[in-house]
Write a structure and sequence with these properties.
five-stranded mixed sheet, 10 helices
Length: 301
């Protein structure tokens, strides 16, 4: 128990960088002018609404999960007024390609998890993916500032809409991963069939992979289609290389006459072709002492 307590104490006492204001650009994403302008906007926000918002970029999370790092930093700095917990932290780690919006309890009614996730997906990430970190950081921070300044409570209906959008965004990539499996199997089957010059297997693999790609085009995110196409080409090329090896060719063609030949064949009636294919395919400001409510959202690019 003593050892466990010492470990827990060391984790809770983790060293975070000291803040130098409300904008802490440790990763040098912003220009001096941009940093000063954003600092002034955050000071105006606090003066007008009493809410405290910090914008932070770091060079690395040190291997930590972005959510845990954001919560620890939020609480260590005490972002938000102590009696209101009305703080917001926008944390970005360009080298880790992750970010998070951490929200104090007092602001969760106007900045719930679903809305924070929507801001990340719609404003921050598209610019970050293009390498425009300063533009993304400024645009995203401006949107959060506007929402906090308006102080409009999100209705249950809006919360449901944001939650549905977040679910759709997460599951769409799950769909892409599902189709990737079938694209890989089909491409490998087509490649080994082409390498061994077995017409039925090559055609079956092309149709199988093509069907999976069609499903991905209909259901998966646009960004995944290019990745799936590259996956299919790479796996097919590997299949061709393997299918050209004598051992693979004999296995795919069967052990009958012509199994070791180099010309195209319609295959063998034995079951060795499918088993060979199957075995291969399976292979400086200050904050008010607030604390995080654990709410918010994370994103990666």
């Amino acid at each position: 128990m003593l050892s466990w307590a010492l470990v827990a104490a060391s984790l809770s006492a983790q060293d975070f960088p000291a803040h130098v204001g409300k904008v802490n650009d440790f990763a040098s994403v912003l220009s001096p002018a941009q940093r000063e302008h954003l600092e002034a906007d955050l000071a105006d926000l606090e003066r007008d609404t009493a809410a405290e918002m910090a914008v932070v970029t770091v060079t690395s999370l040190g291997g930590q999960d972005v959510s845990g790092y954001a919560t620890g930093l939020f609480n260590a700095w005490g972002i938000g007024k102590q009696d209101r917990d009305n703080g917001v932290l926008v944390l970005v780690s360009p080298s880790d390609r992750v970010m998070r919006i951490e929200v104090g309890y007092g602001l969760e009614p106007i900045l719930p998890d679903g809305l924070a996730g929507a801001i990340i997906r719609e404003t921050f990430l598209p610019r970050f993916r293009d390498g425009a970190y300063a533009d993304g950081l400024l645009a995203g921070a401006a949107r959060v500032i506007d929402l906090v300044r308006r102080n409009e409570t999100v209705t249950p209906e809006q919360r449901a809409e944001y939650a549905a959008a977040a679910f759709e965004a997460s599951t769409s990539w799950g769909v892409a991963a599902f189709f990737a499996l079938f694209v890989a199997v089909g491409a490998f089957t087509a490649g080994t069939g082409a390498g061994a010059k077995v017409v039925p297997q090559a055609l079956f693999g092309v149709v199988f992979a093509g069907g999976a790609m069609f499903g991905a085009v209909m259901l998966a995110p646009h960004a995944s289609r290019f990745v799936l196409a590259l996956l299919g080409v790479a796996v097919a090329a590997l299949g061709v290389k393997l299918g050209q090896r004598p051992k693979w060719r004999r296995s795919i063609r069967g052990m009958g006459p012509g199994a070791g030949g180099t010309g195209w064949t319609a295959g063998s009636s034995s079951s060795s072709s499918s088993s060979g294919s199957g075995s291969g395919s399976s292979s400086s400001g200050s904050f008010g002492g607030g604390s995080s409510g654990g709410g918010g959202a994370s994103g990666s690019w």
